[in-house]
Every structure is written in structure tokens, then in C-alpha cells.
Design brief:
2 copies of one chain form a homodimer. The first copy, chain A, is mainly alpha-helical. Chain A is built from 8 helices and 2 strands; from the N terminus they run H-H-H-H-H-H-H-E-E-H. In chain A, helix 2 packs antiparallel against helix 6 and helix 4 runs parallel beside helix 6. The two termini of chain A are 21 Å apart. Chains A and B meet through helix 1, helix 2, strand 2 and helix 8 of A and helix 1, helix 2, strand 2 and helix 8 of B.
């Protein structure tokens, strides 16, 4: 599919609700379980997504629009959430993510981006020259990557419980990952 | 995690809402796109889940409870949905899945399963001897496997659109799969 701003927004707007449906009120084993040392729980993923709203996607878009390619993006700290207190409830994190995502999309709509805007270029600190459209498409895929991660991490809590079905449920063999880079 | 009936139900009950949040009303490219020849779109996944409610999970549990291991489960037709008319709306499929899942969980609760029930055995046509607890755990993991699939298939529609970010978004390199077996 070609990138279309409205189609991208349609997916970005759904992510908080999808994660809320998967996670709000689930027993702690599902929310805090991970895939082993160095990997993230669903709780950590929501914290990471909140940091993305604060420091990654819209701030980078703003750099492209206001400063252009001469000003590289700040590197994104993917693990910032791991250094925060872990005592906030998962529901509080889901609320904050939904609120911040709503603000991000309101900003995006307020910009009334044209095809010329979407073709503007910025400089990723590692990936080099990218367009605004590529940044926004990466935001969508990054969301979906973390949805797969949450579902995979939850599934793995039952790796032993499924017994012989393990041979049929390939998600249980998917590699553990700390989460997509941006 | 050990299998706990109430914790399993907590996840099974969420799947229709999670998939609705991800898919209801999305543009057709997201709903009907797949990962290439022989793979499933999100639309196909919802059809598959409906067939699972009708002929797979609760019917197999009933065989264990009423007939025991002497009566093997019927093989499950994973691709039944591909031979049906494809003109029902995705929203109609999401509604049907939600309704049937609600009925399935009502049946499950009505059985008031004890640990002794959960230890009862049945015979999978390929995997051999399994317990009722393993069947119910596999149902949970099967749901989550398909949630990962829906998010992965959606993400892949933007494989080109993300440009240089492709190197960072590992979900785009995850293998295509027609869907978990049961």
C-alpha cells in the first residue's frame, strides 16, 4: 500500500483501544510477564509507547517541518521506561497513552499536511535521509510491531500449559525481542 | 504460568474486543491485504476464528467431558472460511465472532469445571493424548497467535512505505504464515 495520511491515522488512532482491550484488568501474570532476561513485559511496552508520544514521533515530524534535514533527530531512548518507578498501575499507563496519542493525532491533523509536506526530508541519526511520509508510516508499523509483541509475550506465559499443542502454535517459538527500534 | 481457568477466560473474553478495536471500520487495504499467495488477510482470520467457535474448541471440550479419550476429536478445517462467500462485511464477521465467543464462554462457565475435570484426557487426531486444561490453554494461545498475525499482516502493507526504517522494524521480516494449527 502507498502511504495515505488518513489511512495511517485510522490505524494510529486505534492502538490505545486495542491495547486497552487486550490488557486492562488482566491478572498480573499476563501484564508483567516477559520473554526472559532483557525482554519487555506488556507493562514495559505501554511505557515505551508513552515515551514515543513524548519524544519520538511528533517531535521528529516537527523537526522535519520546522528545521529540515540540517537538524538530525534526537536519538530515541527506547528503554527510558525501564528506569522509571514500576508502581503505576497498567491502567494508569493505558490512560496516559490514550491521552497522549489523542494529542499527537490532534497535532498531526492541525498541520493539514499536503503531499509536498509529506515529501519533505529529515535526517535520522542512524538511518540518514528520510521523508515525513516514511516517518509516519514507520510510526504505524512500530505500533503494530508492539501489538504483536504484547500478544506474543502473553502467549508465551502458557508455553508449558499447552502441552502437545506447542508443536502447532508457532507464536511460542517466535524469537524474543526487546521491541522495535525507531 | 500455570493454567488457571479464570485467568484463561479473562484473555479469551478480550479477543473479540481487541480485534474490533484493531479492525472495525479500517480502510479496505488494511482489512483485506495479506502476506502473499496462500496467506490470510485479517478478514480471513476473523472467519477462521468464527469456525473455531463453531467446530473446534467447545466441541472438543465437550468430547473430552462426555466421551473421553476413546473418541478422537474431529480434525479442524482451518481453511473453511476461504470457501465461503467473501462479501459479508468485516464488521458483520466481528459481530458474529463476538456473539459466538460469548456463547462459548457462557458454556464454559456453565460447566463449573473442577481441577478433576481439567485433568481429564481426550485424543487429538494428530497430537495424541491431551488434557482439557491443555486444550483450553491452547485456545488462549491460538487467539493471541492470531492477534499477532492480524497486526503483522497489517504492518506488512507498509513495508515499502517505511523506507529506511525497514531495517529497524523486524515485524516486516517475520515469516508469513497462514495461521496457527489447532
Amino acid at each position: 500500500m502507498r502511504f495515505e495520511l488518513e489511512e495511517a491515522i485510522a490505524v494510529l488512532a486505534r492502538t490505545p483501544e486495542a491495547l486497552r482491550a487486550m490488557l486492562a484488568g488482566v491478572p498480573a501474570g499476563w501484564a508483567r510477564g516477559d520473554e526472559g532476561s532483557g525482554t519487555w513485559s506488556p507493562y514495559a511496552v505501554i511505557g515505551h509507547l508513552i515515551h514515543g508520544e513524548k519524544t519520538d514521533w511528533i517531535p521528529r515530524a516537527r523537526i522535519i517541518l520546522e528545521q529540515g534535514p540540517a537538524r538530525p533527530f534526537n536519538p530515541f531512548d527506547r528503554e527510558a521506561m525501564l528506569r522509571e518507578p514500576q508502581d503505576r498501575s497498567l491502567e494508569a499507563l493505558l490512560d496516559e497513552f490514550e491521552r497522549r496519542r489523542g494529542e499527537s493525532l490532534a497535532t498531526l491533523r492541525r498541520w493539514k499536511l499536503t503531499p509536498a509536506h509529506l515529501a519533505r526530508r529529515g535526517t535520522h541519526p542512524a538511518l540518514g535521509s528520510v521523508t515525513l511520509a516514511q516517518l509516519l508510516a514507520a510510526w504505524v508499523v512500530h505500533d503494530l510491531d508492539h501489538v504483536t509483541q504484547v500478544a506474543r509475550v502473553m502467549a508465551k506465559q502458557y508455553t508449558e500449559a499447552v502441552g502437545p499443542w506447542r508443536a502447532y502454535l508457532s507464536v511460542l517459538d517466535d524469537r524474543p525481542e526487546p521491541g522495535a527500534k525507531s
